[in-house]
Amino acid sequence: MTVLNALVPDNGYQKLADKAYGDENRQKLDIYLPAHTRSDHPLKTVVFFYGGSWDSGSKADYKFVAEALTSAGYIVVIPDYRLYPEVVFPAFVDDGARAVTWVLEHINEYGGEAGHVTIAGHSAGAHIAALLSLDATYLAKYDHQPTDVTAMIGLAGPYDFLPLQSDRLKQIFGPEQQRWRSQPIHFVEGNNPPMLLMVGNKDRTVLPKNSVNLATKIKQKNGAVELIEFDDLNHVAMVSYLAKPLRGRDELRQTIIAFINQF
């Protein structure tokens, strides 16, 4: 991701770094503001949670995502969140709820509008975004609810990944009898904010069935969901193709923009 950032323009947006949404070192977020917008018109906001298997990642590595979306006129917020082994599930999801709460309550101070906040994520970040959209207990802790969020976008997310195979994941998600709570698919009731699930069919890291299964379950419950499959993309490409040097026909970014602009 560092290489992608080096190839991304530094103009076109203003970065406000390290706004604290909690007391811990990793409970900070960066705000990216589009440079060329009407100051009298509130902007839509995208909160993006990066991936990294719940044990790695940094908001500093995702400038390319911020540029991709600020160039479309959105405010972009990229939070850090605590990682394994400092914490285990559900602490990183709780951090996500704290970050979203901060955005809902403060984004108007930066030209945004609380009524137009989309949460998004790639891989482990999509898992966090999905749980915040489907399991109301996380946002309820901070006096909010999933429908306070306008929409959710998941890129190559793990939503239905039991049983766990690796010892590391077993440590992250705790005792077997409690692991079901980590699965977004178990919290589908049909009342979720509209969701766009995007998946690359060459993904061998997070199998496409995660997105297919979740979309199917939401549709069965008459919830709002759209599933978009990219036949030629793998797991990393599902986020790296947002970077300006790799956009090509720009299908990934344009699909996201079209979805956000529905609301």
Please give a structural write-up.
The chain contains nine helices and eight strands. The protein has 263 residues and is α/β, with parallel strands linked by helices. An eight-stranded mixed beta sheet has the order 1-2-4-3-5-6-7-8, sandwiched between helices. Helix 7 (209-220) links the parallel strand 7 (195-200) and strand 8. Helix 3 packs across helix 4 (124-134). The protein is globular, with a radius of gyration of 17 Å. Keywords: Hydrolase. It comes from Methylophaga marina.
Topology overview:
Elements: H1 2-6, E1 13-20, E2 28-34, E3 43-49, H2 63-70, E4 75-79, H3 91-106, E5 112-122, H4 124-134, H5 137-140, E6 151-155, H6 167-173, E7 195-200, H7 209-220, E8 225-230, H8 237-240, H9 251-260
Parallel strand pairs: 3-4, 3-5, 5-6, 6-7, 7-8
Antiparallel strand pairs: 1-2, 2-4
Helix pairs in contact: 3-4
> What's the pLDDT, averaged over the residues?
95
Reported CATH architecture: 3-Layer(aba) Sandwich
Describe the biggest sheet?
8 strands, mixed
Task: Please mark out the parts with pLDDT under 50 across 5 or more consecutive residues, or reply none.
Answer: none
What percent of residues adopt helix (DSSP H or I)? 25-40%
Question: How would you concisely characterize the structure shown here?
Answer:
Keywords: Hydrolase. By secondary structure, the protein is of the alpha/beta class.
